Amino acid sequence: MSRRALGERVQVSDSAVAAWEVGRNIPDPKTLKSVERILGTDGLLEDIVDNMVMGEKPEEYLGKWVNAETQASLLLRFSFDVIPGLLQIEEYARAILRDDEQVKARIDRQKILAKEDPPVLVALIDESVLRRNVGGSQVMRDQLNHLAERTAHDHVIVQIIRMSSAVCAQYVASFSIASYNSDSGAVYSDNAVSAEVVGNPDVVSKLRRTFEMLRKHAISEEESIRLIKEVAEAWTKKI
User: Fold this and answer.
1) Could you tell me which residues come within 8 angstroms of residue 133 by beta carbon, excluding any fewer than 6 positions away?
2) Which structural domain range is residue 101 located in?
3) Model-level pTM?
4) Strands 120-126 and 156-161, how do they pair?
5) Do 143 and 226 lie in a common domain?
6) Is 221 buried (19+), middle (13-18) or exposed (0-12) by CB count in 10 A?
7) Residue 23 region by backbone torsions, left for phi larger than 0, else alpha for psi between -120 and 50, else beta
8) What angle do CA 233, 235, 239 make, to 5 degrees?
9) CATH code of the domain covering residue 94
10) pLDDT in tens, 36-86
11) In this structure, are 94 and 151 located in the same domain?
12) Are residues 65 and 46 part of one domain?
């Protein structure tokens, strides 16, 4: 079956299907079930998606990145697989990490957002992350409510990129940027295979431009909060 034919069956663009094929994006649970039914894959695709989510590399165990975060005045995060670690609730983190020590380290990391002079955090999140079942309906409801609540702080900005956006086909990996000042910073990039921290100015500059390009396609913060709350309500109905 061609990309266009599958896209027409599940009402998405052929570029969205192309993004699924290379792992740049993941269909929401409802669409994934429709794809499974159309292709007759009998749960295989759901297993692949689960492995992609569970393959997230814990940032806490890259000490170089933790140090970069604590020194940063600005943190930029783009994520198309899971909620950014600094905004995760404990139950959500546990569903991903499944290790008490790693979960504790992740929650402890979040203290940088509560210090007297916290960094500004700008999180760009793909809409599919809101709809992906991590830990069950109740965990998802609580996580999304927490995400919406965090935006009440002036230094936490969350914007969503809709799944219908053409930019989804350009996703390569989730990444974070820690900026110390206008001239220096570090990048944390991760995928299902590896993770690394890079301080090369050229790499930091390139990913900063990529972040701004992606942000151009995101909906406003107000619209994003509204969407987060709507999806949280949808998860509530599934409990």
Assistant:
1) 29, 140
2) 57-236
3) 0.75
4) parallel
5) yes
6) middle
7) left
8) 115
9) 3.30.870
10) 787 777 765 565 555 444 445 555 445 778 888 988 999 999 999 999 999
11) yes
12) no
